[in-house]
Amino acid sequence: MDHQSAFYAFITEPRSWVAVAIVLFVVLFGGKLWGAATAILDKRADTIRAELEEASALRAEAEKMLLEASSRRESALKEAAELLASARHEAQRLAAEARDEAAIAAKRREKMALERIDAAEKAALVDVRNQAATIAIQAAEIIVREGLSADAASRLVGRAIDALPAALAAQ
Q: What tens digit of pLDDT does each residue of 29-52 get?
C-alpha cells in the first residue's frame, strides 16, 4: 500500500476519527480534567488530614483527662485511707478513754462501798456497845435489887464514878 491510500484509509475509518477526537479531547480538556481531579483528591486528602489531626488532638485530650482522672482517683483513695486511719485512731483513743473512765468510776464506787461498809461496821459496833450497855445495866439492876448489900453497892457506885472519865474518853 502506498502512502496515499493509507491516508485515505485512515480518513475514512470511523475508529480513526474517534481516536483523533479522544486525543484532541485529552489535549484540550485533559489539563483541566487532571487539575479538577487532583483538586478533588487534594481536597479529600486535606479533609482526611484535618480529621486525623482532630482525632490526634482528641486522643491527646482523652489521655490527659484519663491521667487527671487517675490522679484524682489516687488522691481520693489516699484521702480515704487517711480518713480511715484517723477514724481508727480516734476510735482507739475513745475506747481507751472509756476504759480509763470506767476504771475510775469502778474505783470510786469501790471506795464508796468501802466507806459504807466501814460506816455500817461502826454503826454495828455502836449498836453492839449500846446493847451491851443496856444488858449490863439491866443485869446490874437485877443484881442490885436481889441482893447487893449497902456497903457493896456503895463500893460499886464509887468504882463506876471513878471509871466514868476513862469510859467517856474511850468513846
A: 878 888 888 999 999 999 999 999
Check residues 8 and 150 and name the one with the higher pLDDT. 8
CB 144 within 8 A of CB 153: yes
Q: List, as one string, the DSSP characters of 36-49.
A: HHHHHHHHHHHHHH
Distance CA 73, CA 48 (A): 36
Domain ranges of the chain: 3-170
Cβ pair 16, 10 in contact under 8 A: yes
Q: C-alpha cell of 59?
A: 486522643
Stretch (H or E) spanning 171: none
For 104, left (φ over 0), alpha (ψ -120 to 50), or beta?
alpha
pTM of the model: 0.40
pLDDT in tens, 3-27: 678 778 878 889 988 999 888 888 8
12 CB-contact burial (10 Å; exposed 0-12 / middle 13-18 / buried 19+): exposed
What CA–CA distance (Å, rounded) separates 117 from 96?
A: 31
